[in-house]
Amino acid sequence: MRQGPIPGAHGRVRPLSILGDPVLHAPCGEVTDFGPQLAALVDDLFATMYAAHGVGLAGSQIGEAVRVFVYDCPDDGDERHLGHVVNPRLVETGGVVVRGPEGCLSLPGLEAATERHDEAVVTGFTATGEPVTVRGTGFFARCLQHECDHLEGRVYADRLSGRRRRKLMRQVARAPWHR
Question: Which of 77, 57, 83, 89 is nearest to 137 (CA)?
Fold first, then answer.
């Protein structure tokens, strides 16, 4: 039985920013107001993430250039991790570097083998200003690193090089959403 409210139940689904949108390629600003507008943004992020069948979503992906992301993501042991982080900082990565499939709601329908550490620690705050530390392993560590990248103005395609990057860019050029 679920305890507490469903994240995003009061949020509205917003349009997703797609690769090429300038908001995805610029660092996001710090959140300074931990009031009702931030709480509404977190609800909108959850609602949009669930509507798009994602496991994480950053503010920039719905056109808001602020440092906040939400997640509802399993780790490799299939343990569910659910939450949000405001003004996150990726403070630690470790374990082994794993090249695995990675997709993004801002590059719909595409994925590429991307290298990420299999352990990550993010610190930040909740929407009410309480400090939070989030530790992830496996797929959840990948999610945390991916969302932190968004807030720095990067998408997973920026981590690719050579043949993998060329292949993904050809797929982007053929994608129906490409401008």
Answer: 77
What local confidence, expressed as pLDDT, does residue 3 receive?
55
Q: Which amino acid is at 153?
A: G
* Pair 85, 124: CB distance under 8 Å: yes
Nearest to 133 by CA among 72, 88, 81: 88
Instruction: Residue 61: name the closest of 91, 41, 34, 76 by CA.
Output: 41
The residues with which 29 forms a beta bridge, in sequence order, are 66
Which tokens in the block code for residue 47?
Answer: 């609602």
For the chain, give the longest Cα–Cα distance: 48
Is 111 catalytic? The answer is no
Condensed to tens digits (0 to 9), the pLDDT of residues 33-62 reads 999 999 999 999 999 999 999 999 999 999
Q: Which of 64, 102, 119, 147 is catalytic?
A: 147
